[in-house]
Amino acid sequence: MKKLWGGRFNDKNSDITEKLSVSVHYDKRLYRQDIRGSIVHSEMLNKIGILSDEELGKIINGLNEIQMEIENNSFDFEDRLEDVHMNIESRLTDKIGYAGKKMHTGRSRNDQIALDTRLYLKDECCEIDKHLVRLIRSLMDLAEKNKYVILPGYTHMQVAQPVRFSHHMLAYCWQLVRDRRRLDFARNSSDYSPIGVGALAGVNYGNDRHFMQQKLEFGNITQNSMDTVSDRDYMLDFLYFASVLGTHLSRFCEELVLWSSSQFDFIRLSDKVTTGSSIMPQKKNPDLAEIIRGKTGRLNGNLVSLLTVLKGLPMTYNRDLQEDKESLFDSVDTVLLSLEGMIEMMKDITVKKDKMRDAVYSNFSTATDLADYLSQKGVPFREAHEIIGTIVGDCEKNNIDFFKMKFSDFQKYSEVFQEDVLDYVNPESSTDRKISFGGTSIYDIDRQLEELRKLL
């Protein structure tokens, strides 16, 4: 059977050409978008007098029937027809005859695939955003339930200063808020109608592109036909979003892995999201967190893959762009799967409050509070820093418990110390002294929660 584009060819494609050309095994997921675009294109052809009302009716009915066939798994996608567009068009012609052959008037597969992927990405961005909101809300709920719990904040993986567990969870909320903004940018990048520009130069028909833009609910329209068929910036914007989101989720998962270890023992993950060992009966492994952490490699790779495909392409459409969709589809699937996994892990996580609190009483976590104490009483901060550093060094040398030092012990180092120094060395009161905007005080945690509620 001859290809739909095969008029000028005498010889069949070789087997390897056939194998390399086929994309229907992955681009068939665009069938809804392809059918929707074809219906609107046909309505436009009817509007400008190329299709009769009767022909338009046959095309619309035929396309709707094809969509039902695909969704009922009774449609046979054929590799010989290469892609989703040709499979649908060929089936339509088989069903309705002559009118089906007229549907492709005034368009190319070049603008057709640009339309399908833009519509697809707009739809998927909305779905992903719903998952992001669910994850943010679950972290907010976790923060609310454990608002007053303290744990060590770390720098260089060393105990640094006491923070609220709720503040720590909200830190990830703000990362996800920024991810939502990047997702919205990607969706807006996709919101430009490409339909009607043809292969690269425009078409020899009065295509009403603005009519089709409105029917397909695009907010904008592309301005240059050559740019339109070669542009994949909107995909790059999404893949960048996916890569950054994956990095954020990976960092969070790393902490879940650490915190659930016997060395930290800050949290317990549910049996629903952990697995055992084939040889060690005692093991409870945080596999879901590790798998999501690993997925970031795929997301980063997909971004680099498409950047590499695009970097050497001349204007306009080149067949290299067949490689754009697998990266896009894989990242969409990976993002949705990872977000579902994160939401599931947050459902039944157990926060071990006492373990977290005990960990604060290590590595001199309130040393900075003491330096600030002296500074507030008039000691230059660099001198205060040196005094507290000397205290820390002596405690380590003499195996003294920093948190059980008496007022008289502190006075040996400076007469500026008063009895209220014992409150400053206490980790329990440290967090609410962080009165700066965005700090770990309860007041500011409540403010952050309120701001997040407004944003959601």
Protein described:
The protein contains 20 helices and six strands. The chain has helices at residues 15-21, 24-27, 31-47, 53-71, 84-96, 98-102, 109-145, 165-190, 209-215, 225-230, 233-259, 287-310, 324-347, 353-360, 367-376, 381-398, 407-411, 421-424, 427-430, 442-455; strands at residues 150-155, 158-164, 192-193, 220-221, 267-268, 350-351. It has a two-stranded antiparallel sheet with strand order 1-2. It has a two-stranded parallel ribbon with strand order 3-4. A hairpin with a 2-residue loop joins β1 and β2 (158-164). α7 (109-145) runs antiparallel to α8. The longest helix has 37 residues, at 109-145. The protein is elongated and about 100 Å long. The protein starts with 14 loop residues before the first helix and ends with a helix. The model has no long low-confidence stretch (mean pLDDT 95).
CATH architecture of the largest domain: Up-down Bundle
What's the total count of β strands?
6
Assigned CATH superfamily of the largest domain: Fumarase/aspartase (Central domain)
Kindly give the count of domains: 3
Mean pLDDT: 95
The shape is: elongated
Count of alpha and pi helical runs: 20
Give a short synopsis of this structure:
With about 450 residues, this protein is mainly alpha-helical. The chain contains 20 helices and six strands. Helices cover about 60% and strands about 5% of the residues.
